Structure formats: structure tokens, C-alpha cells
Backbone:
């Protein structure tokens, strides 16, 4: 085998190993989400939110906030790659995990809209779409233009933007989805 053929074979093998690693990470993610669901059975949310002592309907959100599970091991493993900013690595991971959990509550019909995520001073670079009319979700976009083409006016959509792919993966996993293998590519025909 020539050196060129060997290089091609090694590149092919590297690609297959990367794909295998991604698949194992996805399976690990699904397993942890399922284990969390088994460990913490959900209580069905009442059809009418309870009124708190202060007279607001926020008690439904407060009750759901108590159901947000702690960060699983795979999230802690991923968050080491994040950089500190106004939020620490762990706080960034918690922000993504909580946002994904709120998205899951929406998808389960427990609430109509997710609670807003904590502010962060970093710009969004990766956008995760969990629900959008006419699209197979989840999907992620690597540009704001592609993201806007998918969500249009945000009607019937559920999505979130993040400064990093790591945070986007955490969000996707917390919502109960496997991370898509490739970024969504928008074309004008869609």
C-alpha cells in the first residue's frame, strides 16, 4: 500500500471512529435521560395553574422548577470544555440544562412557554430548534440567517441559541433529544 493510500485509509478510519464516538455519546445521553426519568417520576401538572399567596400564577413554574434534575455526569464531563465568562463553566452548563428542561416541559404540555434563561454576555453561535412547522427536529443551525429562515416568526416553534456547541448539546439532551449529527443547511427552495 502506498503512502497516499495509507493516508486515505487512516482518514477514513478517523472519520468512522469520530462517528462511532458521536453515536456512543448520543446513546449515553439517551440512557442518562431515561435513567433520570425513571429515578424522578413526573407529577402531572394541573390543568389550571394554582394561584400563589401573592396572587400570581407563577406557582406552576415554581413547582416545575423543583423537578429540574441535577446535572448528570455527562453534562459535567462536557462542561470542562467551556470557558468562564460572567458565568462559570458549571453555571453555563446549568443554564443550558435548565433551558433544555424547560423546553421538555413545554413539549410535554406542562407549560405553554419555557422560563427565560439566565442572560449571558457571549453571542449565540449555535441555534437548536426542537419544534418548527415543516421541519424534522431536532436540528441545529450554525448561522443566525439559517436559524431565522427555519423559525421565521417563531410561531409554533421551540428553540434556543447558545455561544457554544457544548451548551447546545446539553440543551438538546435535557429536552430529551439526541444531538443531530450534522448542522442544518437551508436552501431557498425550503
Residues:
Amino acid at each position: 500500500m502506498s503512502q497516499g493510500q495509507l493516508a486515505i485509509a487512516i482518514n477514513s478510519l478517523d472519520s468512522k471512529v469520530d462517528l462511532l464516538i458521536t453515536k456512543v455519546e448520543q446513546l449515553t445521553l439517551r440512557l442518562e435521560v431515561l435513567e433520570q426519568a425513571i429515578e424522578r417520576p413526573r407529577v402531572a401538572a394541573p390543568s389550571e395553574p394554582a394561584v400563589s399567596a401573592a396572587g400570581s400564577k407563577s406557582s406552576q413554574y415554581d413547582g416545575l422548577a423543583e423537578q429540574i434534575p441535577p446535572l448528570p455526569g455527562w453534562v459535567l464531563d462536557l462542561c470542562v470544555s467551556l470557558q468562564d465568562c460572567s458565568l462559570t463553566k458549571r453555571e453555563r452548563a446549568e443554564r443550558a440544562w435548565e433551558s433544555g428542561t424547560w423546553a421538555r416541559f413545554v413539549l410535554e404540555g406542562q407549560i405553554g412557554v419555557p422560563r427565560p434563561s439566565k442572560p449571558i454576555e457571549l453571542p449565540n453561535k449555535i441555534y437548536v430548534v426542537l419544534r418548527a412547522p415543516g421541519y424534522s427536529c431536532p436540528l441545529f443551525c450554525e448561522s443566525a440567517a439559517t436559524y431565522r429562515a427555519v423559525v421565521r416568526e417563531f410561531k409554533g416553534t421551540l428553540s434556543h441559541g447558545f455561544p457554544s456547541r457544548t451548551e447546545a448539546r446539553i440543551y438538546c439532551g435535557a429536552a430529551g433529544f439526541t444531538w443531530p449529527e450534522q448542522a442544518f443547511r437551508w436552501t431557498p427552495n425550503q
Summary: The two ends are 45 Å apart (CA to CA). Helices lie at 3-39, 59-65, 73-79, 89-107, 144-151, 165-174. The longest strand covers residues 126-131.
